[in-house]
């Protein structure tokens, strides 16, 4: 536990140790939700896990920036950018804020930028690809909503595990 301005925080207690997605599939079979999209690993952590928070936005990283600048408490942000690669929904400054604020990972159905710098960050990041283009930052979109991409439904609070073999969501209990 850490003390911050007189308040006790439990960052380590909120962290979920990543498990191999193949082992999880062997255990849960078809009860496990497996993302069918082939995403690329960009962050410094190749395996990560956590409870998810969701954002739906299109070519606008304002909500992504605002969310990753809040306490992450070991969570993973899942962003549905509708698969659009025209503009990046995360760059090195936003990813750096995620690390600083205790997020464990980011999954983006869209593009990122500054990939060389992001590879050195202590953060898991999966995305469809890269682009040098910035997005707008009007904060248009929705937070904490159910998302549907990659052949699965992503619900706020789901437990995600990601590694070099893919991304899975544990079955609901």
UniProtKB/TrEMBL annotation:
Catalytic activity, EC: 4.1.1.112, 4.1.3.17
Cofactor annotation: Mg(2+); a divalent metal cation
Pfam families named among the record's database cross-references: RraA-like
Residues given in the record as substrate binding sites: 91-94, 113
Cited InterPro entries: RraA, RraA/RraA-like, RraA/RraA-like_sf
UniProt catalytic activity: oxaloacetate + H(+) = pyruvate + CO2; 4-hydroxy-4-methyl-2-oxoglutarate = 2 pyruvate
Residues binding Mg(2+), per UniProt: 114
Keywords: Lyase, Magnesium, Metal-binding
CDD domains named in the record: RraA_family
Gene Ontology biological process terms in this record: regulation of RNA metabolic process
GO MF annotations, alphabetized: 4-hydroxy-4-methyl-2-oxoglutarate aldolase activity; metal ion binding; oxaloacetate decarboxylase activity; ribonuclease inhibitor activity
Gene3D superfamilies per the UniProt record, alphabetical: Ribonuclease E inhibitor RraA/RraA-like (3.50.30.40)
Family statement: Belongs to the class II aldolase/RraA-like family.
Function: Catalyzes the aldol cleavage of 4-hydroxy-4-methyl-2-oxoglutarate (HMG) into 2 molecules of pyruvate. Also contains a secondary oxaloacetate (OAA) decarboxylase activity due to the common pyruvate enolate transition state formed following C-C bond cleavage in the retro-aldol and decarboxylation reactions.
Assembly information from the UniProt record: Homotrimer.
Name by which UniProt lists this protein: 4-hydroxy-4-methyl-2-oxoglutarate aldolase
């Amino acid at each position: 536990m850490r003390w911050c301005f007189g308040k006790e925080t439990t960052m380590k207690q909120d962290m979920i140790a990543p498990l191999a997605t193949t082992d999880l599939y062997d255990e849960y079979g078809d009860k496990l939700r497996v993302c069918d999209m082939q995403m690329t690993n960009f962050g410094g952590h190749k395996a990560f896990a956590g409870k998810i928070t969701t954002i739906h936005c299109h070519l606008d990283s304002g909500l992504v920036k605002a969310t990753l600048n809040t306490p992450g408490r070991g969570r993973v942000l899942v962003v549905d950018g509708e698969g659009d690669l025209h503009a990046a929904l995360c760059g090195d400054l936003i990813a750096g804020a995620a690390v600083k604020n205790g997020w464990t990972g980011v999954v983006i159905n869209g593009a990122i930028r500054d990939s060389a710098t992001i590879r050195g960050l202590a953060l898991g990041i999966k995305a469809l690809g890269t682009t040098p283009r910035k997005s707008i930052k009007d904060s248009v979109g929705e937070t904490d909503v159910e998302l549907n991409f990659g052949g699965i439904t992503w619900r706020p609070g789901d437990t995600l595990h990601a590694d070099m073999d893919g991304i899975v969501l544990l079955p609901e209990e």
